[in-house]
Amino acid sequence: MDSYVSPLSERYASERMKHIFSPDFKFATWRKLWIALAEAEKELGIAITDEQIDEMKAHVTDIDYAYAAEREKEVRHDVMAHVLTFGKACPKAKPIIHLGATSCYVGDNTDIIQMKEGLMQIRSLLLTAIERVADFAMKHKDVPTLAYTHYQPAQPTTVGKRASLWLNDLVLDFYDLEYRLDSLKLLGCKGTTGTAASFLELFEGDRAKVRKLDSLIAEKMGFTATYPVSGQTYSRKVDYNVLSVLCSIAQSATKFSNDIRLLSNLKEVEEPFESKQIGSSAMAYKRNPMRSERMASLSRYVITDSLNPAVTAATQWFERTLDDSANKRISVPEAFLAVDAVLSLYINVISGLKLYPKIIERNLNRELPFMATENILMYCVKEKGGDRQELHEAIRKHSVAAAAVVKEQGGENDLLSRILNDPVFKLTREELDAIMDVKQFVGCAAEQTEDFVEGVVRPLLAANPYDDHAASQIKV
């Protein structure tokens, strides 16, 4: 407890995401890449034996970290320290480990592999979130609620339609994520400046074998292709593009969490709250929306963190420079860990979100009389033969008076009573009640929600089966 530990690891991210960016995953992947390189070189005629490759395969995970640390202190180079460590475990293979490669062969290819694995974890969480929000939207598609523009009362909508806006953001994020996943390629083995000169020499000038080596390594590591051109590193725009997806998810989550926080203040909804949970150390009655607040807080970090790879991509010099390395070690993994936590919180909140229909109805009814005045005006002109201008002026005066009761006296909105009792409108209670049917004010909200969920979201989920085990690792 006497040294700093990242809260992302200690408090927020799942075990799966932490493993993807762990030393074990990273350095075992380095060894798998060295094995893939050796296998591909052997297949293309280099004198490497099955015995050497088998020896390497037997020592993928038994990494002597203490020995590697000692070697790195001496050579001041992390890749060479692990080449020496792998060579110690594989004496027969030692002469051919890392043959023809540069440090970025293992470093950059592993970065791509980690990001791919991280995106697959995010994909599962995102699909889980999409499914849970879709269920929520359909369950409450017919529940009228007061809508807001500029956080001022506006024409009513339904709870489900509002949720469809959250859902649409997540669906857009999913399409973006799928594109980035499909676009990811391995760096391959491009050499020190991207020319593959060392491999051309290794294969005695045979360019076809150099190209084949790239494709073989990609295939062995589960990729369909490598980037066709590069310097020593893959373009750092790849990191930016990947973190842009994470940034987009963080934006969606922030929008959702802010809406929940505002609705919590209105007492219309409440996020999950444990039986012994304490909302405030001072105010025992409070039930703060702390999960939504945490979601917003972590999302803000991701949104700002996404600037890191943008600046890194912009400032790379020629075929490579090393000012990317320290930044990448922090900015990329932390974005993944944070979004892993954000989506886990999203799933938890939407899955256990509690509605208070009576409060929703009360808040709506408080504003509905003002919104109904145009309908009242039209009805009284059309059905009662009233004078439009006279009715408009009467509504204006009654609205001002009713607003004063609400704002200045703290009373209830009595606009409808004023209208009902004014003979100029000639309305009966039954007629007014019919005009005030809230279903007349929510437009196509329920139908739009159903069309979107059943026409877009359900087919998307059916076409993209996923393992929702990721959702079971949620930390809240």
Indicate the multimeric state. single chain
Q: What's the shape?
A: elongated
Detail the poorly predicted runs: none
**Main sheet?**
2 strands, antiparallel
- Can you count the helices? 19
Return the structural class. Answer: mainly alpha
* H-E order: HHHHHHHEEHHHHEHHHEHHHHH
Distance between the termini: 22 Å
Overall mean pLDDT? 94
Helix content: 55-70%
Strand content: under 5%
Throw out a few tags for this protein.
mainly alpha; two-stranded antiparallel sheet
Can you describe what's shown?
It is a single chain. By secondary structure, the protein is mainly alpha-helical. Helices cover 65% and strands 4% of the residues. It has 19 helices and 4 strands. It starts with 6 loop residues before the first helix and ends in a 13-residue tail after the last helix.
Topology:
Elements (H helix, E strand, L loop, with lengths): L6 H6 L2 H6 L2 H21 L6 H8 L7 H11 L2 H12 L13 H37 L4 E6 L2 E7 H25 L13 H6 L4 H14 L16 H29 L3 E2 L19 H16 L1 H8 L10 H28 L1 E2 L1 H28 L3 H22 L5 H6 L8 H7 L9 H19 L13
Antiparallel strand pairs: 1-2, 3-4
Put the structure in a nutshell.
By secondary structure, the protein is mostly helical. The protein is built from 19 helices and four strands.
